[in-house]
Structures are given as C-alpha cells and as structure tokens.
Backbone:
C-alpha cells in the first residue's frame, strides 16, 4: 500500500508534480544566473588586471628613469635623472642626424679635397678629439638640441677635416656612450706623442642669468694650453663670425688638468640661444666651426711646435 494513498493529499498529483518541476526549473535558472554573473565578474577582474599591468609596463618603458650620481666634465658630482635612451632621446638623435646634404656641397667638398690633395695623410701629427658627454650624460640642451649629439656630430666633422688636412685623429668617444672623464684623459695620455687634445662642447646659460652666445676655450694653466685655446677660439670665431669669448682657466676640469699634452675644452656655442642653436643644427655652420678649429690647430702647430 502506497503511503500517498493513506493521506488526504491537498492537491492532485499532477499539480504537485508541476509545481515541483517549476521549482526545479526556477532553481536551475537561478544557478545559471549566479554562475554567469560570477563568470562576468571574473572576466571583468582579469581584464582590469591586464589593463593595469599593460599600463604599468608601458609607463616603465616610456619613462625608465633612474636617479644616478655622475661626475660632470668640470669634475663636480651631480645627481641626474637618467631617461632610457631607447625612446625619446634616440628619436631626437636620429632626427638630428637626418640632415640632408645639399647638392652644391659636393662641389665644395671636391674643391677642398683638391686643395689638400698633396698633403701626406697623417704627416702633421696626432690630434685627440674628445666629444663631450655621451650615453646617459646628455650635457646641456636647448631648442630641441642635446649637447652630446651636437658634440659627436661636430667631432666627426672635425675628424674628417683634420684627416683631410694631414692629421691623424683619435676619438675618445666614437659613439653615443658614456666615457668617464679620467678614462678620456687616460686614453689621451697613452697615445704616442700627440699634438693636442680638443674636447668639443656646447654651452648653455640659465634664463635667469640673461642671454649669451659665442665661442670660448676652457683650459688648465699648463704649457701650451693657453696658446692652443687662443689659437682655436680666434680662428673659429673668425671663420664663423661668432663672438670670441676668449680663453678661460679652471683648475677642476678633468680632461684638461689630467692630460699631459696641450689640451682645451672648446665651447662651440650656446644651445640656449635660439639663433645660435639654429646655426648649430645646420651642418654647413658646423663645417665652418670645424674649418676654424683646424685653422687654429694649424696656427698652433706652427707657433708652438715650429712645424
Ligand atoms: Zn659640455
């Protein structure tokens, strides 16, 4: 005997079954909704974490800045923020090096090659060309130019002009890399009987200090240094028409005090001066600077070494 039969069931079996099935369906729908909601929340969380991680990685990549202490070219310790040169710096550098040669320049180069064709390569002696700053040490900047880039560019032009006119050349910094000041002096001092050492730099002036333009030599009170500084600043300012700001002495300039041959730091111009910065971005103007420097070295060689 079935138990159902013994009770007075309040509703018939069909109704009871239907209600039970409806309840199960409702419960199932509820479960599906809960699972779907949880799933949606999980997807949302994962997406948020991914976006956050991507942003963090991107930010780190864009602004990889490290605070570091370095010795600047005056021998002073400085704290700087280093920016990874894989981004903005490199783009700026490439843009700066993308100066196209004008067609007429070919003829100029040809006539100059013709002019110096009888000089025996390397016969005039060895000149050390030191491109200031480099790598994470950008040096001064102004009007879209970074000193290390301008220095390297002028150094290579100077190397070409020196070689054209019979000098051999050693570059202490042939690339955009950091070379320590003492190391630069060591490289120079290890060379066999060099004529002189010329460190190429660009100047800057804080806006609060007013404005300035022109060229100047910085050196150490040692034999031959003042003569070299004067010879170069005089010839280069004459060639370019830039203001001759003279030769100055400073005791704590590592590359001039620690080297053993006549040595100077030559400040070609002020990046903070709009007109001068525009000229320094122009390869033709840089060529004039370089021709002037070599005129100065020629004069110095003659007066100081009597050759
Ligand atoms: Zn400098």
Residues:
């Amino acid at each position: 005997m079935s138990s159902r039969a013994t009770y007075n069931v309040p509703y018939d079996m069909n109704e009871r079954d239907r209600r039970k099935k409806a309840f199960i369906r409702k419960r199932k729908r509820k479960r599906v909704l809960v699972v779907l909601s949880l799933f949606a929340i999980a997807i949302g969380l994962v997406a948020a974490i991914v976006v956050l991680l991507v942003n963090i990685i991107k930010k780190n990549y864009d602004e990889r800045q490290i605070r570091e202490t370095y010795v600047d070219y005056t021998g002073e310790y400085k704290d700087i923020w280093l920016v990874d040169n894989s981004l903005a710096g490199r783009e700026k550098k490439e843009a700066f090096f993308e100066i196209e040669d004008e067609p007429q320049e070919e003829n100029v180069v040809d006539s100059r090659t013709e002019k110096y064709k009888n000089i025996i390569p390397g016969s005039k002696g060895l000149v050390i060309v030191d491109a200031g700053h480099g790598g994470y040490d950008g040096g001064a900047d102004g009007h879209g130019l970074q000193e290390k880039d301008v220095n390297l560019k002028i150094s290579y032009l100077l190397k070409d002009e020196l070689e054209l006119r019979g000098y051999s050349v050693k570059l202490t910094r042939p690339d955009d890399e950091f070379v320590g000041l003492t190391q630069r002096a060591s490289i120079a001092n290890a060379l066999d009987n060099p004529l002189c050492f010329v460190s190429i730099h660009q100047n800057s002036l804080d806006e609060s200090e007013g404005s300035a333009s022109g060229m100047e030599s910085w050196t150490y009170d040692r034999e031959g240094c003042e003569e070299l500084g004067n010879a170069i600043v005089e010839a280069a300012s004459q060639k370019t028409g830039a203001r001759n700001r003279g030769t100055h002495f400073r005791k704590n300039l590592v590359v001039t005090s620690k080297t053993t041959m006549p040595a100077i730091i030559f400040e070609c111009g002020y990046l903070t001066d709009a007109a001068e910065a525009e000229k320094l971005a122009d390869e033709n103007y840089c060529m004039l600077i370089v021709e002037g420097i070599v005129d100065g070295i020629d004069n110095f060689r003659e007066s100081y070494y009597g050759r």
About this structure: Residues 64-70, 80-101 have pLDDT under 50 and may be disordered. The beta strands are 65-71, 77-83, 126-131, 141-142, 145-146, 168-171, 196-203, 215-219, 244-249, 263-270.
